[in-house]
Fold:
Amino acid sequence: MSKSLQAIRGMNDILPEQTPLWRYFEGTVARLLDNYGYKQIRMPIVEFTELFKRSIGEVTDIVEKEMYTFEDRNGDSLTLRPEGTAACVRAVLEHGITGGGQVQKLWYIGPMFRHERPQKGRYRQFHQIGLEVFNLDGPDIDAELIIMTWRLWGELGIRDAVKLELNSLGTSESRGRYREALVEYLSAHHDKLDEDSQRRLKTNPLRVLDTKNADTQAVLVDAPKMADYLDDESRAHFEGLKARLDAVGIPYVLNPKLVRGLDYYSKTVFEWVTDKLGAQGTVCAGGRYDGLVEQMGGKPTPGVGFAMGIERLVLMLETLEQIPEEISRQVDVYLCAFGEAAELAGLALAERVRDQLPNLRLQVNAGAGSFKSQFKKADKSGALYALILGDDEMAQQVVGFKPLRGQGEQQSIAWDALAAHLATCVVQG
Ligand code: HAM
Structure:
């Protein structure tokens, strides 16, 4: 196929055989979020470029080199959203739904776009489920977010494969003081830093902590530690969070080098990481951003949130073989009809059954075909039962009811009794 007719590199089709697992994952998260009192918000995929520059930070990898930015027909600079927090903050400000101090617990789902180098677990169009909470400044809500994800890992059967890393970046004042100390220390070791870290030292020094370069990491061993620069308020906040995680029994690792790749964070930052996916091990990440709303032109409004990468979590379910059996079956019953009269009667019968059993996954054969070919299709569909309508059944106003997986003889069921009979044999989702 010519290149122009192929999907763009790093942007994937989610094929029919993959969507059941996606829907299972998304459904599980959505139910959990409903149960904890979060409400869904839907934002556009495209926003003014300025929004992301101002919120994520001018000197971040995302803004410097990963955004899909273009000029539209009005000459406005627009960008495909690289993440959801900025747009969510824009939306709550625009609609004034946090202005009077109202608490908002919001979640969103959808595609995000970053021009990164594609590899396993890293794509240019990827999908996140994210959530943001506004107007709660205590550590209790930070704890709730983490507790909720912990429950999710439990429900999905992947709890043993993820680890929580935690840090506090403090308020912007304490971070400022720390930044000064770090710059002073790193400047004294300038020659030993890798090129990228030398550049970051000038533009975004905290990001040097994130380096993968071994020489720079060696320099960092004796660097000033963020924890020593935390103000009392941030320290108390962080202790409050840890006490709550301890109370629930959620293990965590303190990682003083965890700084995150977006500039808006303050106080709590966290990442759930796994070693099951190779290099792209962060499956869920977030933190507090108490200054962001004000920085975007709103009243001072505390905020905290996280986002998880759906591709990475789906990959984990596959890797750990945590795929519930029932999600792979998409058809309960398959109706085969032979001859035109049977086909017409079958259609009407199927609709009557659907009226009575709205959750039944009933597939009616389309495209006619011989007994053999329809039966083959019924089997291939994965259905538990086939319903058979031929001349004999028509004459007696019954259907043949044949179990396709396992024991049981074919039996005849009267049309009027079919829905009641199906209700007893098929567990409906
Ligand atoms: P983030 O760390 O940039 O944070 O992304 C969150 C998650 O999205 C990552 O942990 C990862 O699972 C997934 N992800 C990111 N980039 C890719 C990619 N190229 N391919 C596949 N998956 C990816 C944020 O986006 C923040 N908005 C999170 C947040 C919400 N903080 C506060 N509220």
Notes: The first strand starts at residue 39 and ends at 40. Residues 194 and 213 are 7 Å apart (CA to CA). Residues 83-85, 114, 116, 121-123, 126, 128, 130, 132, 261-262, 282-287, 305-309, 311-312 surround histidyl-adenosine monophosphate (CB under 6 Å).
